[in-house]
Structure formats: structure tokens, C-alpha cells
Amino acid sequence: MYFLRLMLWLTLVALVKSNDWCYTDCNHTPELWVHLEGSHCGEDHQSPIDIVTSIVTTDPNLNNFTFVNFSSRQTIKSITYNGHSVQCDIEENEAEVWGGGLSGQYSVKQFHFHWGTETLPGSEHTFNDHRYPMEMHIVTAKTDVPESEILDKEDGLAVLGFFINATEDINMSEPWLMLTSYLANITDVNSKVELNHNISIGDLIGQVDFSKFYRYMGSLTTPDCNQAVVWTLFHEPIQVHKGLLQRFPKETKLSNNYRPVQPLNGRHITASPATPLPPGHLWCYDDQCDFPPSLWSELPHSHCSGENQSPIDIDTQSVLEDKYLSSFKFTHFDNKRAIKSITNKGHTVECILEHDLVEVSGGGLEHVYSTLQFHFHWGTESTNSVGSEHTVDSKRYPMELHIVNKRKDLTLDKAVQTPHGLAVLGFFIEPPQSTKSAYNSVPAETAAHTSSPASKMDAWKTLTLYLSAIRNISSEVEFTDEISIDDLLGNVNRESYFRYSGSLTTPMCNEAVVWTVFKESVTVDHHLMFRTVVLVGGGWGGIAQGPCFAVAMCYVVEGRVQWGCLELGWVWRLHCVDMSSSAF
Ligand SMILES: *[C@@H]1O[C@H](CO)[C@@H](O)[C@H](O)[C@H]1NC(C)=O
Ligand SMILES: *[C@@H]1O[C@H](CO)[C@@H](O)[C@H](O)[C@H]1NC(C)=O
Ligand SMILES: *[C@@H]1O[C@H](CO)[C@@H](O)[C@H](O)[C@H]1NC(C)=O
Ligand SMILES: *[C@@H]1O[C@H](CO)[C@@H](O)[C@H](O)[C@H]1NC(C)=O
Ligand SMILES: *[C@@H]1O[C@H](CO)[C@@H](O)[C@H](O)[C@H]1NC(C)=O
Ligand SMILES: *[C@@H]1O[C@H](CO)[C@@H](O)[C@H](O)[C@H]1NC(C)=O
Ligand SMILES: *[C@@H]1O[C@H](CO)[C@@H](O)[C@H](O)[C@H]1NC(C)=O
Ligand SMILES: [Zn+2]
Ligand SMILES: [Zn+2]
């Protein structure tokens, strides 16, 4: 009795839950899924996403998959229409998958479909903004994880996603003809039909090359959107005659059962080595790539030809005084554990801060900003090189430090699309002996300063010691020393600064930045300055990826190069660039 009541209760809960959300025409359409009880739909690693190939990097660990019983015609048990999709259930523990960079063995549970209308496409993931007609999801669960814990593990489920392309081919694919012929029998919600064991999973997938795929960490695309999915999206679509695809909306009377794409929020998308990453998405600071600065504006989604671009030359004769530019409030700039890691981004060296710890407000900013990272711009290997991005009365400084902050109330994706969504604090860096004549002619500045104050050299020494650990582009190491941002800034004057509205200084150059450029520079000993050494003989042969002469990043300590620059490194094509910023 108790058991029966429990069963009934569970069924009711399931029904209420599944009727509680939808894609269109009900109270809980996708943007309101966040309000469903127990929902994870508002968290920050959600699916689906747009696969933007310009930011995809190749991962050599994404080896070939092994599929077990994908060609067996005994595995597909039944087909059902559950009100949200058409789903085929797989016999328990028959079909399996491993390899493909997955962390273990996964057992296939079911596959289902997402579609649009008879005329409009409806894949969930998009590919460089292109939506395919349909998408098939093969849902698998990790075999060594108890069922009750699957949704608590970020890799508890692995979903294999296939785009489905509509063809006009008069030769209709037999397996799809068979599968779709069942749709007429399952038009009632939760009706279920046994399959006659005529089709295998492999029959449906057809000729897709399994060695070409994309990988990222995400979520279920239906409530409760649990972030428990290792996603695989195969590069090649399954080709199916369009008349067969139209049967899905026609027979079920359900259309557009796809969730809109979700922000990446800093996640990485990787690709298996065989996946072709299109050329023409490479940018660099010199002319060694497809997109030197003069062509950044032609990059997809680029804002680099906008009216309010950065950096600029600050002409002190035309600077106006603004009495609303008050003192800043720097929160946790003195925290010695704030720097989480340091990474070689290929274009810069970046220190990533602990999430939601460091903040900036005041200083005429209209919002509270959380500090995400700081990074550097510098010149070449020559001793007297200069490489700041901004200049003051045409004077370029040896280095420039950028502290990047995001409006605290916005996601990063939203912030880069919002004017003043980002606030960047720029500090020039120069050795103690250089003169500061350019500064002293600033009319807005009342208190003329005499000599530059010293920053704490120990902090800079500690920071630069990490550079040898991130020689390889894309490498990232944990920051274990205790230094704060204040330690690096020293007692530089933070009251005198220039303000203007500008952009990110790297593609896509979004005009979302309120810039603060401090007048006084941070002093760092000459031998601790960053240096770039560009190697000749670099391989830029149009290969997708492989060993090539990296643009090695070197730094010079006490007149000596501390580590070998002549390294043959493994370089991801996207990052195989020169780091010299002198082109600016
Ligand atoms: C493959 O399927 C057959 C039956 O169709 C089953 O006996 C066998 O155990 C399956 N293999 C694996 C590895 O699950
Ligand atoms: C999708 O199908 C169309 C023809 O219907 C074809 O032109 C296109 O190349 C196909 N796309 C892919 C990626 O296979
Ligand atoms: C259709 O398929 C048959 C058998 O597979 C083949 O002989 C024929 O050439 C195909 N026709 C077209 C137009 O592809
Ligand atoms: C599907 O429905 C048709 C007619 O409604 C019926 O003849 C056929 O046997 C059904 N097929 C299955 C597999 O249930
Ligand atoms: C599927 O297989 C059964 C026997 O297993 C057969 O009777 C039926 O005709 C087949 N259906 C199709 C569409 O091939
Ligand atoms: C991976 O699969 C592709 C295509 O199926 C094949 O060409 C390649 O040799 C395979 N690689 C390995 C290491 O087995
Ligand atoms: C750089 O990459 C090479 C080749 O992958 C590797 O052997 C080496 O250990 C890496 N060095 C560092 C400092 O990560
Ligand atoms: Zn799905
Ligand atoms: Zn910068």
C-alpha cells in the first residue's frame, strides 16, 4: 500500500514537473526555467552553446572513440513521444562508449531529437551561428557511478550530439525511413511502441567521421538543466532527406523543441586533432598571421573598426578636468591570496584572480566592478624597447599593466556587450631612472610630483619567476606565493588619472570599456621587465596544428636570458603568434 502510494506520488510528481515547462505556449518557457523548483537552469555552465570555431583549440587528448554494439540491431528497445521530444530507449547495458577523451566507460541509455518546424531549423547547438535542421542526442551515463550520484558529477553523463542536415537526395536513407514511420504511431503523449529490431544506432548515424568532434563541459538542455554533462558535438552532420525530417513536427504537432544557446562564461571548447579548424580566424600583433592589426576589423563579430577604439594617445593639452572623478575604492587589493593562477595566453601573460573577491568602485565609476584578471603589454627583447599600449603626448612607456574589471551585476557575456560593462585600470611601468617630463605638463594636474615612488621589487621578482613555468602557450600554473595587487602597484599615486570611454585592445575590440589610465607609472627595475624574443624560421605552413617554432617568451634577469628561447614547442594553431606589441 505504502509502496503503491509512493509510486503514485512519484508518477504525479513526474507529470506535474514535465507539464510545468515547455518550449513555447506555456508558463515556463526556456527563459523562465530558472524559476522551476530545483532548477539549475540559471547556473553558469549551461547547454546548448554556439560552437564558435575561432575560439576552439585543438586538444591532442581527444583520441578516437570506441563504440560497443552501435551496429547491433538488438539494442533499440522502443520509441516514445514524451511531449518534449521523440525518444528511443536502449536495452540496459548493451551499448557502450569510451575513449574520445572521456574519463571512463559510459553506457548508452537513450537517444532523442530536437527540431524546428517543417520549414525552420531547430538544432540546439549552433555552429558559428548556423542552426542545423535537427539535432540527435545519444545520452550515456558513466558506468562506475551509482545512478543516484550521476547528476552530481560534472561528467556523470556524456551526451553525443549529432547535427542533422536536410538533403534533397532522392535516395532516402532506409533506417530513417523506418524510424520515422513509427512517428504516426506515437502521437499521444507518453505513447510507446516497441521497435522491430530493424535498425541499429550506427545505421542512423551513417557516414559521420567519428574522429572529428568538439568537446566542452555543460548541462542537460531540459529542466532541471543539471551541470553533469561532458558534451561531444560531431563536426560532420548526419545527412537525411528533408521529407523525413519534416515528419517530426508534422506527426507530433510539436515544433521548435530546442533551448536557445547559453553563454560560455569562460568555458573552453576544444576539438579533436582531426577536426579542421578553419583558417582565417588567427589574429596577431605583427604580419605573421592571417589577421594582423590592420585586418582585425574583418574578423567575424569584430568591432575593431568602431569609432571609440582603444588604445589612444592621451594629448594632455586637450584633457579636461572633471571634478566627478573622485578617489577609487579598491577592495581586497591588499589580499595576498587573490591571485589564483598565471597563464600564457599567447598574446599576453595574465594573472587570474579568485572569483568574486577583488572589487573596484568609486573613481567616477557608476557601478561596482569585480576584478577578473590583470595582464601586461610590453615591447621586444631589445633593452630600450617600449611597448605600452597607451601613449601620453606620444610618449610610449616600456610596459603597461591592465587590471580588467567587469560590472558585478552582469555576466561577462553581457558586460562585453554593454557600454561601460568593463572597467580597465591601466598603469604604465618603467624603470626608476627614466624621466617623466611628459607628465609634468598636464594642466589638470595640480600637485606636480618630483620623483617616482618605488614599488615593492620583491613582488615583481616573485611574479616574474613564474614566467619560466608558463613557457608553453596556453599553459597555466597555480599561483602559490603571497603577493597582492597592492604589492605590485607599490605606492604609485592612484588619485591622478585620465578617463575616457573606449574598447578592448584585442579582438573583438568590443566598445564596452571605461578606461582609467593612471598618470604616474609603477616603477619596476629594468632587469624585471618582460621581454619578447621572436624566433626566425617559424613554421606557418597552413597546418592545422603541430610542432612549429613557437614565438618564445623570454625574460631577462640580470642581463641574462633565464631560459632557452630556441625551443621547438607544441603549439596550438590559434595561438601560434608573435607576442610583440610594438606594431601598435
Ligand atoms: C552487445 O549486444 C549483445 C546482444 O545484442 C550482448 O549480448 C552483448 O553483451 C553486448 N555487448 C556488450 C559489450 O555490452
Ligand atoms: C547540408 O545539405 C545541403 C544540401 O541540402 C548542402 O548544400 C550542405 O553542404 C550540407 N552541409 C553539410 C555541412 O553537410
Ligand atoms: C540510389 O541508390 C542506389 C543503390 O544504393 C544506387 O544504385 C543509385 O545510383 C542511387 N541513386 C542516386 C541518384 O544517388
Ligand atoms: C502503427 O499504426 C498503424 C495504423 O494505425 C498500424 O497498422 C501499425 O501496425 C502500427 N505499427 C506499430 C509498430 O504499432
Ligand atoms: C522489420 O523486421 C521485421 C521482422 O523482424 C519485419 O517483419 C518487418 O517487415 C521489418 N520492417 C521493415 C520496415 O523493414
Ligand atoms: C581515428 O579514426 C580515424 C577515422 O576513423 C582514422 O583515420 C584514424 O586512423 C584513427 N586514429 C587512430 C589513432 O586510431
Ligand atoms: C612544454 O611543452 C612540451 C611539449 O609538450 C613539454 O615537454 C614541456 O614539459 C612543456 N613545458 C612546460 C614548462 O610546461
Ligand atoms: Zn537533447
Ligand atoms: Zn590589455
Automatic annotation (TrEMBL):
Span of domain Alpha-carbonic anhydrase: 19-273, 281-566
Residues spanning the signal sequence: 1-18
Enzyme Commission identifier(s): 4.2.1.1
Protein's UniProt keywords contain Transferase: no
Keywords: Lyase, Metal-binding, Signal, Zinc
Described purpose of this protein according to its UniProt entry: Reversible hydration of carbon dioxide.
Family that this chain belongs to: Belongs to the alpha-carbonic anhydrase family.
PANTHER family referenced in this protein's UniProt entry, alphabetically: CARBONIC ANHYDRASE
Protein name: Carbonic anhydrase
Organism (species): Ameca splendens
